[in-house]
Amino acid sequence: MGLFEDLKELGVDVDGGLKRIGGNEALYKRLLNTFVKAMKGQQVSPDFDTSDYEDVKERAHAIKGTSGNLSITPVFEAYSQIMDLLRADKPEEAKEALKKVVPVQEEIVACIEKYAE
After folding, report:
1. What is 57-104 written as a DSSP string?
2. Between the CA atoms of 33, 39, 42 and 46, what dihedral angle is there, to the nearest 10 degrees?
C-alpha cells in the first residue's frame, strides 16, 4: 500500500483533499508534509491550564483549519468538537476529547512521515 491508501485506512478523506486542489497529488503530498510540521509546532497538550487557555484555543483553531483544508477528517472532527467545548467554557471536556484524538493524530502524522520524501 502507499501513502494515500494508508491514510484512507486511518479515516482521511484523501479523495476530498485531492479534489480541493484540483487532483494534484504532488501538491497534496507537500501539503501533508506541511501539516506534519504544523502539528509539531501547534501541538495541543491534554494537560493544558484550564484557567487560561486562550493559547490552546488559537492552536486548536489552527489545527482544525489545516486538517479541514486537507480533509484529514478524524483530526478535523475532533478539533471542531474541542473548539466548541472551549468556546462553551468547558475545558475539562475539551481535555477528554484531546486525550482521545492525540493517538489518532500521532498515527496519521507517523503515516505521513513514513512516506515523506
Report:
1. HHHHHHHHHHHHHTT-HHHHHHHHHHHHHHHTT-HHHHHHHHHHHHHH
2. 180
Contact 87, 81 (CB under 8 A): no
Q: Once rounded to an integer, what is the mean pLDDT over residues 69-87? A: 97
pTM metric for this prediction? 0.91
Query: For residue 116, what is its C-alpha cell?
Result: 515523506
Reported confidence tier of residue 45, pLDDT bands at 50, 70, 90: confident
Residues 55 and 78 sit within 8 Å (Cβ to Cβ): no
Residue 4 predicted with pLDDT over 70? yes
